[in-house]
Amino acid sequence: MSDPSLAHRPTLEAVAARAGVSRATASRVVNGSDGVRAPLAERVRRAVDELGYVPNQAARTLVTRRNDAIAVVVAEPETRFFSDPFFAQQVRGISKELTAHDNQLVLLLTEGAADYERVGRYLAGGHVDGALLFSLHDDDTLPGLARRAGVPTVIGGRPGWSDADTLYVDCDNRGGAREAVRHLLDGGRRRIAHIAGPLDQTASVDRLEGFRDALPGTDPGMIIEGDFTPEGGARAMADLLDRCPDLDAVFAASDVMASGALRVLRTRGVRVPEDVAMVGFDDIVSVAEWTDPPLTTIRQDIEEMGRMMARLLLRRVSPGPGQQESPALSSIVTPTQLVVRASA
Amino acid sequence: MSDPSLAHRPTLEAVAARAGVSRATASRVVNGSDGVRAPLAERVRRAVDELGYVPNQAARTLVTRRNDAIAVVVAEPETRFFSDPFFAQQVRGISKELTAHDNQLVLLLTEGAADYERVGRYLAGGHVDGALLFSLHDDDTLPGLARRAGVPTVIGGRPGWSDADTLYVDCDNRGGAREAVRHLLDGGRRRIAHIAGPLDQTASVDRLEGFRDALPGTDPGMIIEGDFTPEGGARAMADLLDRCPDLDAVFAASDVMASGALRVLRTRGVRVPEDVAMVGFDDIVSVAEWTDPPLTTIRQDIEEMGRMMARLLLRRVSPGPGQQESPALSSIVTPTQLVVRASA
C-alpha cells in the first residue's frame, strides 16, 4: 500500500493480534474464505469492527473512487440476449473499447425484469464505476435504479424520456426507415406493409414514424407489431398475408424479424423479390447475408455504437487530465445506410 | 443501518460536517458522482479518511462478507464465447440457479488471456463471493489469480491438476467417447478417424483417451487436432480425407466441429452415412438437429451442469444454517448418453 493517506489505517496484522489469531486466519476471514471455525471467525470480525479495519482494495477504492470496471445491463432475459446477434455485436464494441482502456466489462445477466432490484443493489454496491443500459422498454425500472445507485450511465438507444443529464447513443432510426420505404417506392412497389418492433421501445416507434413519413395515410391494417424475434416476424408475416393478400413489399424493423418473414413467404410459395420485396433493418451480416434471398437492409454500425457508448461513459466517469469536472458531453445519433442485396 | 455492530461507525453527516460541505455534496463525492469541484471533493475525501468513514454498502459487506454475486469467467475471447452455443447453454443453467438463490450473475468478459490480470484484480476487489471458471487451457493463469484473490471457485470441466481443494463439474468424457466409437464399430465401421478438440484442454484429452480405449493401436494419422470451431472441424475433415481416403467413419469431439466436417463431406460428394458415418459430442440441439443429415452424438446435459456448478459454489460460499463450516463437498462427474440420429 503505497498511498500515504492510507498509512495510518489499521493493518491486518493489528486485526490478527487483537483477535488472537494468526495473520493467515485473519486474512481468510477478511477475504471470505471457508474453513475458519465460527468462534474464531467471529473474533476476527469483532476485531475488524473495533479497529475500523478496511481491506486494501476497499480502502483503495474509497480513496480513488475507481474500480476500473463498467457494468453492462441488457433489459432482456438472458435467453433473448444470447439468441439475438444484435447484442453480441454491441457487446463486442464495448469490450474492445473497455479493454483498450484497461477497464473490466462486467455483464449483469438476468432472467427478467423481476431481477432488476437485485441488479440495482449490485450497482449501488460500489462494484462498478458506471453502467451501460440497453434495450430499455417503456416501463423499465432499470434507469431509476441506476440513478438511485448513484452510478453514471449511458443508454444504448434513445430513452423514452429526455433530460439534460441523460446521455445515449442511437442511430437515425426514423431517417433509416424513411430510406427503406423510399427504396421500395423507387422500385415501383405500392402496397407496402410494415412489421414493427415492440412499440414499448423507442427504436420501434421511431422506425414506424419513418415508415409513416414516407407513406402518410397508410391503412393501419398494413402495420403489425412484432417482437424482434424470427418467430415474431414469421407470425406477423402470416397475419399480413391473410389480411392483405395483395401486398407487394414489406419493411421489417429488424433483420431477425425479416428472416422469419422470408421463411413464411417461401412456405406459402410467394417469390421474393418478384411477388413481394423485403427490406430489413440493422445489417447483421450473419443474418442478412444468409437469408434466401440475401436481405436488402438499413445498416447501423452496431459494433461502433458499442464503442461509442463505452467511450462516452468512460469520459463521464473520468474527467480528462487537468480537468476538475467532466467535460460537456452530448448524446450521439449516427447515420444509417441502405445496403442493397437481392430481396428488394 | 440496523446492524448494531455498525452503530458507532462515523456517519456521512459527520463527514459532511468535518469537510464543511452539505450532506448532498459529501454523498456525491463518496458515491463517485460527477460535478463536485475538485477542492471540495478533496476536503470530503480527507474527512472520509480522517474519520475512517466506510460507505454503508462497503460496511455491510465487511460485516456480512456477502455480495450475493457470483462471477463467471470463460477462458476464451468474447468472440468465441458468443459464437459457441455451448457457453450460452451453460450460462443459462448458471443463471437459473443463481436467480433462484437471489444471487447476481456477473459475467467477466475478456478479449483474451492478456486481460486475465485485470480479471484477477476484479476478483480480488471484493465484488463477488465466488467464481465459476470454465474452458480452462493448460497454461491458464486464471485459477492461480482466483486463488490469490481469495475467491472460492468451482471449475467447469476437470482441471489439469488435482488437489483436495479443487471442485469441478464435468461429464464422463472418456466413457462418452468410448460409447461413440463402439456405436460406429457396432454399425460395421472399421476405418474410424477422430477429430480431437484442442489438446491443451482436458475434455479433448479425455475424449481422445476414450477413442483409444475402444480402438487401441489406431494409426496416429487417423487422429487430428481441431479447435472446437466449425472452421477447425472443416479443416480437419479435409486433411483426413486427403490422408486416409478409405476412412468410413469419424468421431468428432464436438457437434460444432462435426457440423463443419459434414459440410466438407457434402462438398466433396461423400455421402453420410452411406460412405462415411459421423458421431459428434455434446448434443447441442440447435446444432445437432439442424445439420444435414441430423447428427448422432453423445449427450451431456450442459444446462444442468451449469446449475450443478452454481449450486456447488453457493454451498461452498455459504455453509447451511446451523453449520459452522462448509459441508464436505465433492466434484461431480455426470454420465453421458448416446443420441442416435441419421449421421451414424
Automatic annotation (TrEMBL), chains A, B:
Record-annotated HTH lacI-type domain positions: 10-64
Source domain of life: Bacteria
CDD domains reported in the protein's UniProt record: HTH_LacI, PBP1_LacI_sugar_binding-like
Listed PROSITE patterns: HTH_LACI_2
InterPro entries, A to Z: HTH_LacI, LacI/GalR-like_sensor, Lambda_DNA-bd_dom_sf, Peripla_BP_I
Record protein name field: LacI family transcriptional regulator
One Pfam family linked to the record: Peripla_BP_3
SMART domains: HTH_LACI
Assigned keywords, A-Z: DNA-binding, Transcription, Transcription regulation
Organism: Actinacidiphila acidipaludis
